[in-house]
Each structure stands twice: as C-alpha cells, then as structure tokens.
C-alpha cells in the first residue's frame, strides 16, 4: 500500500475551500489536515512514500462524467473511443469516473445489452466506470428486466422520446417504464425531444435540398425539446417517478424544469459544455476549405446546438448558477469525420450524432470560474459532487474526505490548456470539436484510487486499473 501526501494546496469542495494537506493511504483518503500537520509527533512528509507538492494549486475531487457513450453503435457505425482510449482521455482531463450507457435497442433483450457492455468495458478502463441502462424497447420483458438492475448496481436508466425505430419509446411505453421505476427507486433519464415530429421536419428539409449539417439544427427545433420536456415531466408526475433530463440545450426546456422544481417535483437537469459554448450559427453553420458546409458535421449532436441570437447559451450558464440545472456531463459520443460523419455527406439525417469532450469537461467548466459565470465551489459541485450524489456514489466519490476513494486532481489555476489535435488530444477522433480553445487552468496531477495516473505531462495509468462501480440509489430522494 502506497502512502501519499499532497501538501500546500487549497482543497476545494462543493461548500468551501481552504489550505489543507491530504493524506492518502492506499486507495483511500486517510485524512485532510491543517497544512504542515504532524501525526503523533511524526513529520508526515518524511513518513510517506510520496509527496506531491500542490502549492499554489487547487486540490479537488476527481471529475465524474455521468454521460458517456464509448463504442456506441449508432447510425451504421460505432463511437470511435473504446473504453480504453476514452477512459485514458478522461484521466488526462481530470475525470476519474465515467458512467456509460449500456444499450438495449428495440428488439434486443436488456440482459444481453448489459452483458455486452460489461464485456466491452471489463479490464479495459483506465479509470472507474459505472453503467446506466438504455431501454430502447419497453415491453413486458424489458419491464421485468428492470427489476434486476438495482442488484447489478445500475440505479438509473435512459429512455428516448426521439430516434423512432432505434431507441424510441412512445408515451405509453414511457409511462409503463416510469411506473416500474417509481416502484424500484430507479432514476429515469430522459432524452426529451419529440422524435416523430423531428423526423417529419427533417425529411421535408432533406427532400427540398436542404441537406447540410446546419439543417440538423433546424429540424430539431427548440419547441420540440420544450414540448417533450414538458411531457416527460407530466408523465413522471403521474407515476411519482423522479426524472433527470439529459443534455438540455433549449432555454425553454430549462424553464420547464425550473417550473417543475418550483412546484416541488423531483425533476433534475443536466447540460453539456457544447450547449454552453457552441452554437447553431457558428458551429453547425460552419464551412471550411476541406469540408465546405459539411464542416458543421463535427457538431451534429442531439439535442442540437442552439442559436446564439436566441440566447440559449447564456441561459444555460444562468441555470447552472441558480440550480435550475444541477450537473454538467459531456454526452461524449465521438465520431471521426473520415468514414463516420462522412456517412451523412449529402444528407444530414445520416450523420452519426455526437461530440467528443470527455477529456475537456473539467477545463471547459473551469473557464466558467475564470469568467465569473460560476464559483470555484460550484465548479466542483457540478462536475463531481452532484454527479456522485445523483448517481449513488456519495461517500466514495465526489469529495475530498476521510474514507472516500483517493480520486484527486491537482489543478493549476495559473496553467494554460490549448485544446486541439496535436496539443491535448487523446480521444480517438480525427478532429476536435474544441479545436483552438485556449483556456486558463491545467490538470497537473491525477490520482485514481491512490494511484498516480497523470503527472508531469505523462500518463502513468493503465487500462484495467478502472473498476466497475456498483452504484446505490440517488441520494437526492433520501
Ligand atoms: O448526439 C448524441 N447525443 N449522441 C449520443 C446519443 C444520445 O442521444 O445521447
Ligand atoms: Zn440522448
Ligand atoms: Zn448521450
Ligand atoms: Zn500545469
């Protein structure tokens, strides 16, 4: 068992900050001590195996990205990060746990989907990983299978009001799944967009020759996100099931969530860095010498990037401050341009949906601290502490406290991070959705359960170090 002392840093939690030394014994945090403390007269720095100097830096709990899709089969291809490459990229960026989505598609058995996901991940992850379960075909078998999820350590599952024929559930299916979830204490995660309506608009656009990636954003109108969010809230309310709305991008959808929360409903919302920084006009509407207007394919994801003129991005930041939204995950779902996004050349409907960001979430969100959008404590809360509580990992993850797993990041506020291919890029993608982003702040050292996985600009971890996280029920409903 290795002992490590992190000295001289400022420990930041969701509720405060202060100078402290952190003692790690094996895989766990043993003590958080006044700076320079001795233990029974012993100089600690002289008694431990390893001292990490965190002077002038923040010491924060490792990030938890509760929304990733490694190796997701989608649109005739598969997300380009494996559990190995994706979790190594996560580690580089200060994320020490991911929660990925095991997939059952219409016509498949939930048990088979889950077993396949364990097979993909086991022995390959560089940081810890848990699963949510996607239920893409709610029927009697699937409802029965939900009963086994809690004992598998899977306490949340995702439904889709979008993607007819692939993952889609109609209102009757949603209602039945939510009734079951209410019984079992499972948290329902909802992809809230009106898929059937979107498909009509998308077909009309494509048939009239409007085939560029930009029209992906036009077809997926904010009204269809607002409407589905409202419907999901009402269906959940009828059943008594708590609801977590994923990848919220429309300010009108935030207003639905805020209204439900004000009315005392157990409704939660997540947004992603892309909805805070990127837009319909600048990214989906982008054009380049290499790709022409197909450049925008790099940012085709659902829900889509929204219009900056309409003010959605500002509204997301505000919602993060006011707790109308509680978390920031990435929805990491990377596809290369070559051979993958390219499938949609000439028809935006065939572009595989997704953006890769698992490596950059902590840096991108720290930028919100630099610009004054959020406080340092809120940064930790949104990226680590709340994900741990929301998804049944509280006590183990998301805090720097005795007994918690020693997932620790030393973050240098005076450092700089240049994001882009050939710079900080470890995700398995041929481009970066964040190319050219220069941010203040730098992930210097990363510990995953007491092991140094990133330090001195080097990756020191290994695939297989990451363990499967059996999760408990959400702590928000205790
Ligand atoms: O575009 C996205 N978000 N791709 C991943 C699948 C999903 O809906 O989360
Ligand atoms: Zn989704
Ligand atoms: Zn997703
Ligand atoms: Zn640095």
From TrEMBL:
Keyword Hydrolase among record annotations: yes
Database matches in InterPro entries: Amidohydro-rel, Hydantoinase/dihydroPyrase, Metal-dep_hydrolase_composite, Metal_Hydrolase, Metallo-dep_Hydrolases_sf
Cofactors named for this entry: Zn(2+)
Residues found modified as N6-carboxylysine: 158
PTM summary: Carbamylation allows a single lysine to coordinate two divalent metal cations.
EC primary class: hydrolase
GO cellular component terms listed in the entry, alphabetical order: cytosol
This protein's record includes keyword Nucleotide-binding: no
Family per record: Belongs to the metallo-dependent hydrolases superfamily. Hydantoinase/dihydropyrimidinase family.
Phylogenetic classification of the source organism: Bacteria, Bacillati, Actinomycetota, Actinomycetes, Micrococcales
Species annotation: Beutenbergia cavernae (strain ATCC BAA-8 / DSM 12333 / CCUG 43141 / JCM 11478 / NBRC 16432 / NCIMB 13614 / HKI 0122)
Protein name: Dihydropyrimidinase
Residue span(s) of domain Amidohydrolase-related: 58-453
NCBIfam families in the record: D-hydantoinase
GO MF term list: dihydropyrimidinase activity; metal ion binding
Keywords: Hydrolase, Metal-binding
Enzyme Commission code: 3.5.2.2
């Amino acid at each position: 068992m290795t002992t490590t002392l992190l000295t001289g840093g400022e420990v930041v939690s969701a509720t405060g900050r202060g100078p402290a030394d952190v003692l790690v014994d094996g895989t766990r945090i043993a003590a958080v001590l006044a700076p320079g403390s001795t233990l029974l007269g012993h100089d600690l720095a002289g008694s431990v195996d390893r001292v990490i100097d965190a002077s002038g830096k923040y010491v924060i709990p490792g990030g938890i990205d509760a929304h990733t899709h490694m190796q997701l089969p989608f649109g005739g291809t598969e997300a380009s990060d494996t559990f190995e490459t994706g979790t190594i990229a996560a580690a580089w960026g200060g994320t020490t746990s991911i929660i990925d989505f095991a997939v059952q598609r219409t016509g498949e058995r939930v048990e088979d989907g889950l077993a396949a996901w364990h097979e993909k991940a086991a022995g390959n992850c560089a940081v810890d990983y848990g699963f949510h379960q996607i239920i893409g075909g709610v029927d009697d078998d699937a409802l029965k299978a939900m009963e086994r999820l809690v004992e598998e350590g899977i306490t949340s599952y995702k439904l889709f009001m979008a993607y007819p024929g692939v993952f889609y559930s109609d209102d009757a299916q949603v209602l039945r799944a939510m009734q079951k979830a209410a019984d079992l204490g499972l948290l329902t995660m909802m992809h809230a967009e009106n898929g059937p309506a979107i498909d009509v608009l998308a077909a009309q656009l494509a048939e009239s020759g409007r085939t560029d990636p930009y029209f992906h954003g036009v077809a997926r109108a904010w009204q269809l996100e607002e409407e589905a969010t409202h419907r999901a809230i009402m269906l959940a309310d009828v059943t008594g099931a708590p609801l977590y709305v994923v990848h919220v991008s429309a300010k009108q959808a935030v207003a639905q969530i805020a209204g439900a929360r004000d009315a005392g409903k157990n409704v939660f919302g997540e947004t992603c860095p892309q909805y805070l920084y990127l837009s319909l006009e600048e990214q989906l509407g982008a054009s380049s010498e290499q790709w022409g207007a197909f450049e925008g394919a790099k940012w085709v994801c659902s829900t889509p990037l929204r219009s900056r003129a309409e003010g959605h991005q500002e509204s997301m930041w505000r919602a993060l401050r006011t707790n109308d939204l509680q978390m920031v995950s990435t929805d990491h779902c990377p596809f290369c341009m070559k051979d993958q996004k390219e499938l949609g050349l000439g028809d935006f409907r065939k572009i595989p949906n997704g953006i890769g960001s698992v490596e950059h979430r902590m840096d991108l969100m720290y930028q919100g601290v630099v610009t004054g959008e959020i406080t340092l404590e809120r940064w930790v809360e949104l990226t680590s502490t709340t994900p741990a509580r929301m998804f049944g990992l509280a006590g183990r993850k998301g805090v720097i406290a005795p007994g918690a797993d020693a997932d620790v990041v030393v973050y240098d506020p005076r450092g700089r991070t240049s994001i882009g291919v050939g710079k900080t890029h470890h995700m398995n993608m041929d481009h970066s959705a964040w190319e050219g982003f220069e941010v203040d702040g730098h992930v210097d050292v990363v510990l995953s359960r007491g092991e140094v996985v990133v330090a001195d600009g080097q990756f020191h971890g290994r695939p297989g170090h990451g363990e499967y996280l059996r999760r408990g029920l959400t702590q928000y409903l205790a």
